[in-house]
Specification:
single chain; 369 residues; alpha/beta; Aspartate Aminotransferase, domain 2; 2 domains; seven-stranded mixed sheet; three-stranded antiparallel sheet; 11 helices; globular; binds pyridoxal-5'-phosphate; PyrdxlP-dep_Trfase_major; pyridoxal phosphate binding
């Protein structure tokens, strides 16, 4: 049996007719930039996020960068975030000419540890970016409490967590802004790049709208420097077809996650720690990520058996060569570094079959027996 991390083919076959007819609609209308499909998906995703504004941009990385700029983050400012995330989180901070300040993670959720944030705040701190890693929201109550006390913006990196909730609250509902990615492998994936900022802050939303069109307002009048980063109309048309399915797809992911957890629990004992859904959270399982002993050997063994797995993330950002001038060294963020040695993500997508999961589970048990 060969089991990929992600297989988008079955999903496409189910929505193919609708997608092709929407794409035809766009091409026949000749309205390719910021047309009605972008408007619709901005409205629908803002509504889902319980926010007043949705701003479609070129990708999830630009969404973070633009949200930071729109919130006034600039040269010399510091932004607190996690080191255990995709590069774009800290890359976007640096592109906004600010300095990423890394805080260690909570070993249970892999998300930023709120109890370590306050010690990292200085006069230069402007914002906190929690990342809702693998599809589970960070501890937003504590993060918002700290941010409010110190007058900081919170920008949620929700690239992996569209549709997740925290104590009944949506992504973007509590903070200054949240950012989504529509990279094809994300839970709501386009057929190319795409991203969005959602916000309840009128000023940030207005600034973000101006930044994505070269800082132009009114048209051809430039009072600030922006750039070209817009959600593409064709991608928006695809997203409009997919969005109504998102809650079912999230439920399917959760069913698969429960199945993995239940079966692995019986079989692998102390060798494997399953992901934990914190009470009050709705985890959308962008990834199903274990902590395992002998991780690299297990990964190689599974590969021989035809099972794809991924390591998110093997090198934490504070140890990346491009950030060496920030002055971090090995040992600075022990929980992050431990997670980087133990994390292993298993195949996960809504259309995953039980027999595929059984095979993965059987082979993991075989490895440890
Ligand atoms: C995917 C991702 C991004 C970047 O999104 P792109 O659309 O690929 O630019 C940012 N942060 C996290 C946590 C991601 O997983």
């Amino acid at each position: 049996m060969r089991i990929p991390m992600l297989d988008l083919s079955e999903q496409y076959s189910k929505i193919k007719d609708e997608v092709l007819s929407k794409l035809d609609e766009v091409m026949s209308s000749s309205q390719f930039i910021l047309g009605s499909h972008v408007k619709q998906v901005e409205n629908d995703i803002a509504e889902m996020s319980k926010t007043n504004h949705g701003i479609g941009v070129g990708n999830g990385s630009d969404a973070i960068h633009i949200a930071l700029q729109a919130a006034g983050v600039s040269e010399g400012d510091e932004v607190i975030t996690t080191s255990f995330t995709f590069f774009a989180t800290a890359g976007s901070i640096a592109r906004a000419n600010a300095k990423p300040v890394f805080v260690d993670i909570d070993p249970v959720t892999f998300n930023i540890d709120p109890s370590k944030i306050e010690a990292a705040i200085t006069e230069k701190t402007k914002a906190i970016i929690p990342v809702h890693l693998y599809g589970q929201m960070a501890d937003m109550d504590l993060i918002m409490e700290i941010a409010n006390k110190h007058n900081l913006h919170v920008i949620e990196d929700a690239a992996q967590a569209i549709g997740s909730t925290y104590k009944g609250k949506q992504v973007g509902e509590m903070s200054s802004a949240a950012t989504y990615s529509f990279f094809p492998t994300k839970n709501l994936g386009a057929y190319g790049d795409g991203g969005m900022i959602v916000s309840n802050n009128d000023e940030i939303a207005e600034q973000a709208r101006v930044i994505r069109v070269h800082g132009s307002k009114p048209k051809y009048h430039h009072h600030m420097l922006g750039y070209n980063s817009r959600l593409d109309e064709l991608q928006a048309a695809v997203l409009n077809v997919k969005l109504p399915h998102l809650s079912t797809w999230s439920e399917n992911r959760r069913t698969h996650a429960n199945y993995y957890t239940e079966k692995l629990n019986d079989l692998v004992g102390d060798f494997v720690i399953m992901p934990n859904e914190v009470e009050g959270n709705y985890h959308v399982f962008h990834q199903y990520t274990l902590r395992v002993k002998k991780r690299d050997e297990l990964q190689a063994f599974l590969k021989e058996q035809g099972i794809a797995t991924m390591i998110y993330y093997s090198i934490p950002l504070h140890l990346q060569p491009v950030f060496k001038d920030l002055g971090y060294k090995e040992g600075d963020l022990p929980e992050t570094e431990k997670a980087a040695e133990q994390a292993l993500s298993l195949p996960m997508f809504p259309e995953l079959k039980q027999e595929q999961q059984d095979y993965v589970i059987e082979k993991i048990a075989e490895f440890y027996s």
